[in-house]
Amino acid sequence: QVQLKETGPDLVQLTQTLSITCTVSGFSLTTYNVHWVRQPPGKGLEWMGAMWNGGGTDYNSAFKSRLSISRDTSKSQVFLKMNSLQTDDTAKYFCARLGYGSPGWYFDFWGPGTMVTVSS
Amino acid sequence: DIQMTQSPPSLSASLGDKVTITCQASQNINKYIAWYQQKPGKAPRLLIRYTSTLESGTPSRFSGSGSGRDYSFSISNVESEDIASYYCLQYDNLPYTFGAGTKLELK
Q1: Which residue of A48, A62, A102, B95 lies most exposed, with the fewest beta carbons within 10 A?
Q2: Tens-digit pLDDT profile for residues A8-44
Q3: Residue A34 contacts B where some CB pair is shorter than 8 Å
Q4: Residue B67: what are its φ and ψ, rounded to 5°?
Q5: What span, in angstroms and rounded, lies between the C-alpha atoms of A29 and A20?
Q6: Residues of A with CB below 8 A from B89's CB?
Q7: Where is B89: in which H helix or E strand?
């Protein structure tokens, strides 16, 4: 069955770099797209960026050049890396699969998320 | 970027009530809207896609409608398991954008 799981640090120091891994199973990264979404405590959902099945990426301009998404298809893993962390980057970070349903692509499966706190 | 204005921010309902949440997009999103349910500490769960198509496993008391810029999501006969937050998502254009959410509570 389709599963996604995020792994990363619980705590990151101010101005440091966050690295999170999304490990997927039940589907191939060369067939499906995986995106990143985050949610600050008590707040709403924010789309961060995409790893497309062809290997390309797209990013929310809100993160400017701080964000990088990559993958290792042999390990079924997608990576998020974001630098210059600030306290307002404290959030739960989710990876989600973009599934296709005629018509259109939407998030059909999500990982449970990983909570990251940025500490000064 | 397409802005999704979701209302109300919170909703209080009794068991068996019908409730409706709306999302207005800042431009036509061609029915590419999905609705998600999120319970505390959990990931969002897809309920409805393409405005009104129920995802497999979504109870029939959930429904969606709309077109152009204006969309709605309803729960008829609210049950205790429906107590959660609900979000709309537009997937017509990147960046995908979510509504701010609606927290459904029991009266």
Answers
A1: A102
A2: 999 999 999 999 999 999 999 999 999 999 999 999 9
A3: no
A4: -165, 165
A5: 17
A6: 45, 106-107
A7: strand B85-90
- Residue carrying structure tokens 């990931």: B43
Q: Which residues of A touch B43 (CB under 8 A)?
A: 94, 96, 110-113
All residues at 6 or more sequence positions from A69 whose CB lies less than 8 Å from its CB, including other chains: A36, A49, A50, A51, A57, A59, A78, A79, A80, A81
List the single residue in B with minimal CA-CA distance to A49.
B95
pLDDT tens across B24-71, in order?
A: 999 999 999 999 999 999 999 999 999 999 999 999 999 999 999 999
- Looking from the CA of B28 toward its CB, the CA atoms found within 13 Å total 3
Question: Searching chain A, which residue's CA lies closest to the CA of residue B34?
Answer: A106
